[in-house]
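Example for tutorial group B:
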């Protein structure tokens, strides 16, 4: 195709947006509203997944060594655990450090622990974190069988329920987003098809005077692309501004410091790319499908 011909198609497609003002407005509005709803749930799903991952990463295994185990034995056990390919990190906490941490947890009641420094009853501890949090239970079972390990604690029972819950949340989120995306595609495509159907006489006349199918298709291709892209830009602006405000409020609020939302960058760019891709694709798809049926003259 010649550059001049392509330029003509682009100009015609852009002009058609203005010539069919109300129908264009209806199509762009349908795209904007539908993608705004999709964008809200997409951001929600991504943040729920982020919070679930944050909670999972806090799961750890505490390995309590024999009270009589010395530094050498502790190092040997640590080396054995680190050799496990499922293990991410192993941190040694001496009985002295453990006592200091216990005092901090007691707060004002720390005086109840005074005098234990000389006769510390706490064992040396190894804090183990798994590369994949869901493998925490299996690692704990393997570690518990090692020599000089007195006990292992990882919240047995509760941790398994946590992983089951987070997996369910992820699966429900994925199913919901996919379902909403397909619903959005059909709603937007049908609205754009109504816009094209209102101009079926124009297509039929062009076909009768000898215009080729692709000569007729190209302006509608450009028009659908522009409608979908413009319709996607509106929710992108709204969502970006709204999310910036939300992140700012959450980060400055002392009541929700136990979790954090995903940062603006790269979330805003990811959501914008997804929405504008969906908008452009549906705009083109809806236009091309609708034009095709009127080319059979």
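The residue assignment follows.
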């Amino acid at each position: 195709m010649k550059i001049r011909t392509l330029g003509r198609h682009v100009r015609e497609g852009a002009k058609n947006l203005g010539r069919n003002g109300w129908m264009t407005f209806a199509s762009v509005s349908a795209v904007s509203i539908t993608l705004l709803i999709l964008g809200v749930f997409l951001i929600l799903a991504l943040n729920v997944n982020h919070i679930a991952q944050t909670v999972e990463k806090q799961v750890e295994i505490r390995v309590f060594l024999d009270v009589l185990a010395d530094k050498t034995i502790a190092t040997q056990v640590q080396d054995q655990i680190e050799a496990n390919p499922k293990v991410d990190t192993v941190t040694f906490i001496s009985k002295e450090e453990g006592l200091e941490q216990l005092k901090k947890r007691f707060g004002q009641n720390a005086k109840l622990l005074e005098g234990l420094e000389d006769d510390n009853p706490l064992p040396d501890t190894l804090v183990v974190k798994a590369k994949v949090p869901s493998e925490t239970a299996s690692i704990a079972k393997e570690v518990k069988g090692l020599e000089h390990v007195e006990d292992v604690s990882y919240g047995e029972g509760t941790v398994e329920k946590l992983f089951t819950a987070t997996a369910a949340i992820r699966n429900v989120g994925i199913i919901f987003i996919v379902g909403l995306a397909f619903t959005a595609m059909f709603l937007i495509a049908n609205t754009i098809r109504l816009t094209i159907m209102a101009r079926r006489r124009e297509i039929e006349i062009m076909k009768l005077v000898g215009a080729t199918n692709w000569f007729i298709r190209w302006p509608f291709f450009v028009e659908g692309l522009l409608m979908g892209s413009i319709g996607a830009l509106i929710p992108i602006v709204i969502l970006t501004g709204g999310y910036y405000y939300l992140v700012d409020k959450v980060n400055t609020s002392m009541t929700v410091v136990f979790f954090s939302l995903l940062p603006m960058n790269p979330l805003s760019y990811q959501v914008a790319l997804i929405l504008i891709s969906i908008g452009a694709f549906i705009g083109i798809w809806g236009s091309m499908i609708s034009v095709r049926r009127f080319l059979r003259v």
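The chain has a mean pLDDT of 78. Compare this with the pattern of hydrophobic and polar residues in the output above.
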